[in-house]
Here is the input.
Amino acid sequence: MALQDFLSSVTDLKAANRELSRNISEIAILHQQALSSTTRGQSNQLEHKVTQTQLLIQKLKGDIRRLEQDAVDSAAFANDTTKQIQIKAQKREFERQLRDYEKDEQSYRHKYQEQIARQYRIVNPDASPAEVQEAAETDWGNEGVFQTALKSNRGAQSSSVLQSVRARHNEIVEIEKTMNELAQIFIELNEIVVAQEAPVQHFEEQTEVVNTDLEGGNKELKQSIWHARNIRKLKWWILAVVLLIIIIVIAAVLGWCYTSGPCKTSNGNGGQKTKRSMSCALKL
Here is the structure.
């Protein structure tokens, strides 16, 4: 995917994350309203918003997986981490939103259970704490359980309270369903990372090999340069020594020639001495 198209998709992800944040806030408000409402309409609004949010979460998860895979491919084949930086930021934001949603759902599940316990005490004021706890955890969606409770509490108020208890239980069931889905999404997001470790690790290994080869090549090059410089220096030193030896030899020969050799003359004639000196030099 071209970088411009990728960045455009990232912009869409940002907008979707903001929408998810708004939905989570609205669900929390609807949960609070459901706790104090006895109408079915309130529950319908809550169910509708939860369904919308679940669809949005699934879309976000799919988009993140697609873009994250493209980012890994770009990093492996083009050595470009720009895409990875962008998608990781949005993935972290998505995970943060999911954790907030999960925390809110846990909180309201607890509140619904507390309300069931209070309502059960209304129709069974003599119930023991153990019986109340059992009622809070009872499957009130089971028609047999519900009808048995109605038969034991035939008053109009009791019937209304038990209907409310059943409604609260249904909310808890939906919350548990949502929490299970969130847990599965976290697993799938983690699987994306695990699946990407192999190509990323291969890329990192190849990079390390290249760096090692470059370091070895640079070391050998430096050694070659050092040897070449030393050889040049040695050549100049040898040339200087040879020249010095030549100069010393010439000086020694001339000294011998003028002191005891053929260049020496007993004649005081300066012209003849000069000629003999030149003759001696020519002989050399």
Notes: Residues 266-271, 280-284 have pLDDT under 50 and may be disordered. The two ends are 86 Å apart (CA to CA). The helical segments are 3-35, 40-78, 82-123, 129-136, 143-152, 156-259, 270-283. The CA atoms of residues 21 and 97 lie 6 Å apart.
